[in-house]
Amino acid sequence: MSTALEAYAAVAGQDVIDQLGQLASRYRGMKVVHVNSTRVGGGVAEILHKLVPLSRQLGVDAHWEVITGEPTFFQCTKAIHNALQGNPVMLPSQWLEAYEENNRRNAERLRPLLEEADLVFIHDPQPAPLLGLCPNRRGKWVWRCHIDASHPYRPVWHYLRRHVSGYDASVFSLASFAQALPHPEYLIPPSIDPLSEKNIDLPADEVDAVRQRFDLDSDRPLVTQVSRFDRFKDPVGVINAYRLAKRFVPGLQLVLAGSGADDDPEGEAVLAEVQAAAGDDEDIHVLLLPPDAHRVINAIQRASDLVIQKSTREGFGLTVTEAMWKGRPVIGGDTGGIRLQVIDFHTGFLVSTPEGAALRMRYLLNQPRLIHDMGAKARTFVLENFLLTRQLREYLTLGLGVLTGMGERIELG
Amino acid sequence: MQEHADTVSDTQSFSIKDCALIAISTGRRAYNLRDLSEHLRSVAVDSIYYHFWGGLIQARFDEREYNNDFASWVRHALHDAPLAERLAVLDPTDFDELEALRRELMELMDQRLDESESLHWVQATHPFEFIRSQIVIFDTRHRIHSPEELAEALPGLSIGSIFYHFIDARRRVPDHVDDFRQWLATFGERYDRLRERIAEVEAYFSSVSEIRERLAHAVHIGVEEAAS
Hints:
Chain A is an alpha/beta fold. Chain A has 15 helices and 13 strands. Chain A folds into two domains: 207 residues, Glycogen Phosphorylase B (Rossmann fold, 3-Layer(aba) Sandwich); 182 residues, Glycogen Phosphorylase B (Rossmann fold). Helices cover 46% and strands 15% of the residues of chain A. In chain A, the strands form two sheets. In chain A, strands 2-1-3-4-5-6 form a six-stranded parallel beta sheet, sandwiched between helices. A six-stranded parallel beta sheet of chain A has the order 9-8-7-10-11-12, sandwiched between helices. Chain B has two domains: 101 residues, no CATH class; 112 residues, no CATH class. The longest helix of chain B has 20 residues. At the A-B interface, helix 2, strand 6, helix 14, helix 15 and strand 13 of A face strand 1 and strand 2 of B. Strand 13 of chain A pairs parallel with strand 2 of chain B, so a sheet runs across the interface.
C-alpha cells in the first residue's frame, strides 16, 4: 500500500481503504476523465486535486483536464452559475456564442482523450457542451452539478438543459438541487480531504504566528467567515451580524477571509463593497488571500471560536465542513448543503438573517462548554460522513452503476 | 434468495460480500401529508427500502430519532407527533414484502388524515424528497469456515459488508433474519445462544460502525459460550 493510502487509512480506517481497493479493482483497463474549468480556487478544483491522485493510487487510470477560456467565456459561465442559483440574469447572444465557441476550441484539444475514455465526469456548466462535441464517444458521460440549482432562473436553465440532457447520468449534491432530466440523477454530497494543507492538524505555534501576522488578539473572541467574495455568501450580512453581536460582546473580532478564483470576475466588486461596509473598524479584518494560502486559512479557522457561513445560496458549503473538521461549531445560512451539515444544537445553528446570526454568536460565545461539545460532535460528524474517502466510494459506485446497468441491485462477481 | 444461496454455499463456508449504496433522486416531492400518501402509492418500491435502511449507510446526521424517514419528516416537517410515533413502530421485517409495507404506510397516513381535519391543509416546513437507491454488491473472495473465524473477522469487516450481511439480508433471507444467523443455523443447536445474541443487536438506531462493534462483541461472547 502506498504511503498516501496508509495516511488515509490512519484517519478514515483501514476497512474504508480496503473497500475502496475492492471497488477500484473493478476499473482495471478503464480510463476515467474529469473535466472542469479551473485548476485553482473554489471547491471543485480542491476536490479534484485530491480525488484524481487518490483514484490513481488505488489503480484507477484517472485523468483531470481543465478547459481554458477568454474573459467573455467566464463572464458567461459566471452568469449561468448565478442564474442556476436563482438570479434573473440575461445572457447576451455574444456571450452564448463565446460559450459555445470556447467549448468547440477545447473539444478540438480534448476530443481524442474524451472519446476513448470509458467514463467522463464533466463538472459544472462551463464544459457541459463538450458532450455534443464528441460524437464518437464510446464511454458513459456524467454531468456533475456542484451548484444549488433548486430554484434556477428558468430561461437560462432551459438553455443549459439542451447541453446536459444527453448525458448518461447527472450528479447533484442534494435531492432538492435536482432538476428534471431524462436520465438518472445521483445524489453525492462533496467532501474534504483531511490530509490537505487546509485540513491537517497544525502546531499551536503556527496558529499563533498567523494570529500575530493579522493582528488578532487571542484573548478576545474571534468569529470567521472563509469564502470567496461573492454576494451569495452575504459578507455584508456577516458584518451586520457582527455589529449587532458586538453591542453585547464588546471584544468581538471578525475575520472575512477569501481569495479570488480564475473563473469569478465579480470578486473585486464584492470585495470593494465589503471593505466599504467594514469602514474603519479595526476589529474587522478583511483578508484577500492568495488561492494557495491553504495553511493560513487552516490556521485562521483553528484560531476562531466560531465559524460563520451566512450564505443565502450554497452548493454544499465545504468551508462549513472544514470548520467542523477542526472542531468548531458553525453558524450557517439555512440553505443548500449547509442544512445537511449544520444541525441545530448539535453541530451549530442555521440562521436566516443577520439578526439570527448575531443571536447565535452571543448564545455560543457566552457558553464555552457548549462550543467545545458541539465542536467535538461536529468533527465526528465529518469523520463519518464527509471525508474524501466517502465521496470517492460513491463516485466509484456510481461509475459501476452507470457502466453495468441501471437496476436496483447490481451483483459483481 | 439467489444472493443468500451464494453467501452460504458449499459445506458451510460463508462468503463475505461487500456493498456500496448510492442515492438517486426520483424527482418526487411531497409538501403535505396528502402528497406523501399519494406519492407512496406509486413510487418505486426501492425508494421505500431507501427511506427505511439507506440512512444507515449514507451521509447524514447519525442521531436517528426515528427508524425511518417518513416518521422523521412527519414529526419535524409536519409536526404531527401521533402519526410519527405510529410510523416509527413499523418494522419492515414484519412484512413479507415491501409492497405490504407500502400498504401499511399508506393505511396509517390515511387513517391519520381521517382523524385530523387540519392535516389536510398543513404544509410541511420542508418537502419530503423521495430518493431511491442502487446497491452494488461484490465478492471480497474472503471465506469464513467456522464461527470462531467469524469472531476474528468481524471487527475488520467493512461497513458495507456489515450492512449487506446484517441489514440488507433481512430483505433476502427467509424469515427476515440476517446472513450470520442463517449461516450459524447450519451448525445445529450448538450455536443457538450465539444466534440469540446476534438477534439482540439493534439494527436501527446506531451507525453501522457501532453495529459492527456490538456484533463483534456478541459473536465473541457467543463463541466462547459454545466452547465452554
